[in-house]
Task: inverse folding
């Protein structure tokens, strides 16, 4: 037993020595970790910009009247609204300066119409009808707040039973008060950050457990090193076990570094470690099968690339074709990415059900693949092609 453990330790140490002589692999892993750091920085900046764009809304007016007092008495239930009186009336073509944190503005003013002016000159009274001017301004591309403000103001007009004519419009705020431009894929939201984090985690595990396994093992197999080692006291099974432990250890270290950057609390969750282990087992098994069934290092690497493209095509077509959606359900990669997204995102009401389904599939599929990979490796994987 001790001799077997010593042989396993020697083979395991050999894999680390090979990695030291391959700095490109270490640079690739470091690049993926750096990408996670950049995503974390960008998500924080996007969250700050999003909070800035969700600043308070202003209701500005030159003079307080009964309608303004009606709005003050019936505040918006969810939208933060502040009232601000202006020292002068609104002038056509003149823009008002507002604080940068203000996301939407309702400019409410009064002006007399031409018919009102004729009435004033004919009757010389103060009962002439006026036209109420309501102009809504907004910042950024998110129209949720300005829509809420406009509905609240117009509903207030209807409830106030004002007999005035209403003129309303919608214009963007000046560039000074506009929020920071955001992309369609908003890293400020937890869902987008979870999707990007899950893809980074899977990419890291794919490189460490599949691409690197194929590169190192296919090179040894092509040169006959694995066959020479199998003729010693270290059999093919011990060789594969040493490679498996090496790539699993490297995957755990790289994944832990990414989780420490994206969401450190996940390092304390047992389900997160189970996910990393099961996903790594599946990818190592796929790499073992591809290496065993190929004749050279070049063909093994090409088959690994085709495997990755196949996963991407199935994922893309599953959105529109039910048959590919069923096929995706039998792929452990889908359950790995989905469960990682659920863990990085804020849990919803269906988290327990979805998590159990993905976890059960992850605990079954990779184990079956590993059994098949060990059988193929012992049959022909260690032999020189």
Result:
């Amino acid at each position: 037993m001790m001799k077997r453990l010593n042989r396993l330790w020697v083979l395991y140490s050999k894999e680390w020595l090979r990695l030291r002589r391959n700095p490109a692999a270490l640079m690739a892993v470091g690049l993926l970790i750096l990408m996670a750091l950049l995503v974390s920085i960008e998500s924080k900046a996007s969250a700050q910009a999003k909070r800035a764009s969700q600043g308070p809304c202003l209701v500005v007016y030159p003079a307080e009247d009964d309608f303004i007092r009606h709005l003050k008495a019936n505040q918006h239930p969810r939208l933060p609204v502040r009232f601000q009186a202006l020292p002068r009336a609104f002038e056509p073509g003149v823009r008002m300066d507002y604080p940068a944190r203000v996301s939407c503005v309702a400019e409410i003013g009064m002006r007399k119409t031409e018919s009102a002016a004729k009435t004033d000159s004919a009757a010389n009274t103060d009962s002439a009808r006026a036209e109420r001017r309501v102009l809504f301004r907004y910042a950024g591309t998110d129209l949720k707040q300005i829509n809420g403000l406009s509905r609240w103001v117009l509903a207030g007009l209807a409830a106030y039973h004002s007999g005035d004519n209403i003129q309303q419009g919608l214009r963007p705020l000046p560039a000074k008060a506009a929020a920071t431009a955001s992309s369609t894929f908003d890293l400020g939201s937890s869902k987008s950050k979870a999707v990007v984090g899950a893809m980074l985690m899977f990419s890291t595990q794919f490189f460490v457990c599949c691409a690197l396994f194929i590169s190192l093992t296919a090179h040894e197999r092509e040169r006959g090193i694995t066959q020479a080692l199998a003729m010693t006291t270290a059999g093919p099974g011990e060789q594969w076990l040493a490679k498996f432990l090496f790539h699993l250890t490297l995957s755990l270290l790289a994944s832990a570094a990414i989780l420490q950057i994206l969401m450190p609390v996940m390092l304390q969750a047992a389900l997160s470690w189970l996910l990393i282990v099961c996903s790594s087992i599946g990818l190592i098994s796929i790499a073992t099968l591809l290496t065993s069934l190929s004749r050279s290092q070049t063909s093994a690497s090409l088959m690994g690339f085709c495997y990755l493209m196949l996963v991407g095509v199935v994922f893309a077509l599953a959105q529109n074709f039910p048959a590919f959606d069923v096929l995706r359900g039998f792929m452990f990669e889908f359950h790995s990415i989905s469960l990682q997204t659920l863990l990085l995102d804020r849990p919803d009401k269906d988290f327990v059900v979805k998590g159990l389904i993905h976890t059960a599939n992850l605990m079954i599929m990779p184990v079956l693949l590993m059994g098949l990979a060990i059988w193929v490796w012992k049959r022909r994987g260690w032999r020189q092609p």
Confidence is low (pLDDT under 50) at residues 119-129, 175-183.
